[in-house]
Amino acid sequence: EIIHYGNLGPDDVALIMAASRTIGIAANQIAKEHGARIISTKRHAAKKVVLQDISADSILSTENRIWHRGL
Fold it and tell me: What percentage of the chain has pLDDT greater than the value 70?
């Protein structure tokens, strides 16, 4: 859906919430395949390794109440 309706491509940025969950991981991989820059969010610090493994460009923790400032 993000490819078809969102017309996601190489010049785009994808913000993927809860990116370390199953659907988030798939969304990361799809967006990366289409050349988009990936900003992934996760709740717990332990999940950062998962997101690094799937090549997220930026990883923000929503544990921090001001996480959105990292955008």
Answer: 75
Residue closest to 45 by CA, chosen among 18, 63, 28: 63
Structure tokens at 70: 């990292």
Given a contact cutoff of 8 angstroms between Cβ atoms, the answer to whether 2 and 8 are in contact is yes
**Band of the pLDDT at 19, cuts 50, 70, 90?**
confident
Whether 70 shows a pLDDT value over 90: the answer reads no
Nearest to residue 56, comparing CAs of 36, 23, 5? 36
**pTM listed for this prediction:** 0.73
How many whole angstroms separate alpha carbon 44 and alpha carbon 33?
26
Torsion of CA 29, 30, 34, 35, to 10 degrees: -30
